[in-house]
């Protein structure tokens, strides 16, 4: 899920060590567009606090650019875009489903399960490589094999917006503390 195409996956293999060495984790990578104008979109975060500010994006962009310039894995011209996953972020790794337990999410599967491919509910953690989710109207917690999930995203709601505001306030307070020291 971190990459959609074979080309995306090759780029992830190339850039994961670069991001990790710089102190970041790649959440998702997409190479988009046609031969004329392509965009390499990299969503990343600091593993320690799942945050990514503008300075982090610039730092990671420079590190990735050095490797891409040297390895030249993308034919033609492209624009590199490094960003945070955002508040209603994609869930692309098993660890994401654990970290956001208790939050509402949408899942899309690569096959039918109980007659449908799309599910919405509250994340209930991870168990033996499966995502646990409490679906609306269901008494039992559903277990969905992680390998079946092709798209997953947090649902933007009041609870998630509150968490985002708290995270932003904490970041700003820490930045203010650093500038006053």
TrEMBL record:
Q: What is its main location?
A: cytoplasm
What UniProt keywords are attached to this protein's entry? Cytoplasm, Ribosome biogenesis
Q: Does the keyword Transferase apply?
A: no
Q: Which part of the chain is the Ribosome maturation factor RimP N-terminal domain?
A: 14-88
Q: Which InterPro entries match?
A: Ribosome_maturation_RimP, RimP_C, RimP_C_sf, RimP_N, RimP_N_sf
Q: Is Transmembrane one of the keywords?
A: no
Query: Where in this chain does the record put each Ribosome maturation factor RimP C-terminal domain?
Result: 91-156
What's any one GO cellular component for it?
cytosol
Q: Where does the record say this protein resides?
A: Cytoplasm
Q: Which GO terms describe its biological process?
A: ribosomal small subunit assembly; translation
Pfam families recorded for this chain? Answer: DUF150_C, RimP_N
What is the top-level taxon of the source organism?
Bacteria
Family the UniProt entry places it in: Belongs to the RimP family.
Primary role: Required for maturation of 30S ribosomal subunits.
Entry protein name:
Ribosome maturation factor RimP
Species name for this entry?
Answer: Phenylobacterium kunshanense
